[in-house]
Write a structure and sequence with these properties.
251 residues; alpha/beta; TIM Barrel; 7-stranded parallel sheet; 11 helices
Length: 251
Amino acid sequence: MPNPWDVGSARLLVALGFPALATTSSGFAWSLGRRDNRVTLEEALAHLRSISHAVPVPVNADFEGGFATAPETVGANVAAATATGIAGLSIEDSTGDVSSPLYDFTLSVERIAAARRAIDASGTGVLLTGRSEGFIVGRPDLGETIRRLTAYAEAGADCLYAPGLRTAADIAAVVHAVAPAPLNVLVNSDFATVAELTEIGVRRISVGGGLALAAWTGVLQAAREIAEKGTFTGLAAGIPFGEINGSFGSE
């Protein structure tokens, strides 16, 4: 389930045969010239609407932390997201505060429960993913991650996600702990293959901002060459214009 950052990248991924997509908060923020987690709720909702309406496959929304702290406000924002056409969304438990990077356990569970209630009330069937961010915010505690994910499942999360898990042993431990609920694993480097993760029992894979980062890497490398050397070999290595242009059909 790769992660496009705009309509064009979403359509290209569908053309490659991917049966589902997921948005990326970082990729979208960078496309606006901002850091991750610096977009507004209204901007995020408009982005979800544009992506989900542009492609014929299910789209899962990176809904960050629900754009609120209080469970009731998270619920209200989730209700708004369910009206955009998305098929799923995730709520994470990171605070953005480096001194206290995760929400209190009880509050985190209440936030997932509020999202569950909002989805049920919407009647949309949107799939809810509960995310625990410890491994990417400086709190890589496997026991606490499992404690949180299993509690999120009990609070109504359909899928569980702990970005930052990288070893087969850690991933397997979480797969077994949250079963029968599916586990989503983030792959933003070459530490594993689809086949290897499938063998462990992973049911869903996303790449987060990985594709957007790869695209920005290509842009920066080619642009730096022009700025620093006055040469253009980076442009010559690009995919032919006609191939990209033709990928978008007759629109």
